[in-house]
Amino acid sequence: MAQLVVLPMMGAGLFSGSALVAAGSLMGHLVYGAVLGAVYDHAASAHVGAAAHGHAQSAIVCASKSCPALRPEAYRAAVLERQLDDAARGFVRDTTRNRLDAAAKTLWLSSNFDWFDEDFERASGSVPAFVARYTDEPTTRAIRDGGVRVEFLDYDWSLNRR
User: Fold this and answer.
1) In this structure, are residues 119 and 54 in contact, taking their beta carbons and an 8 Å threshold?
2) Average pLDDT of the chain?
3) 69-123 per-position pLDDT tens digit
4) 17, 53, 71, 155: which could join 111 in a potential S-S bond, CB 3.0 to 4.6 Å?
């Protein structure tokens, strides 16, 4: 369904690029479903359940360059919360996907934060609050001091060959 409805709204889709990109995106959605299923099956507390969506959005790998980086290990239920925290931290701190322009007081974020804002808001109250939980200290301080404008980077749908 996402291939036919959501991706065209974002400027891409099943028929706008290569079949390999579409297949990679489909795999990302399948991984997302598996991660969410594992989180909710594993989540015995409201704490883990509330953070699940934001964490999972940081762990989804859809094969495009703007997606979060592929983890070098499988997600495992016994350590899933730690792995999702690590994925969120890695994604938020990746300056090719998210960065602060301190001089312009602008936080440039991945389009994922725009498209899935409700998931990040559910996890932390707002997109900037989610970012502040996982970013470096200067960026966290700038977000918490206020006055930082949020802008979203163009999404790079090209195939991540790494």
Assistant:
1) yes
2) 78
3) 888 889 899 998 899 899 999 999 999 999 999 999 999 999 999 998 998 898 8
4) 155
Structural domain boundaries of the chain?
6-152
Structure tokens at 102: 């301190």
CB 81 within 8 A of CB 124: no
pLDDT, residue 8, reads 56
- Tokens representing 34 are 């598996």
25 contacts 66 by C-beta, under 8 angstroms: no
Residue 105 contacts residue 117 (beta carbons within 8 Å): no
Query: How far is residue 151 CA from its own chain's centroid?
Result: 15
Q: How far apart are CA 120 and CA 112, in angstroms?
A: 10
Nearest to 98 by CA among 147, 59, 30, 151: 151
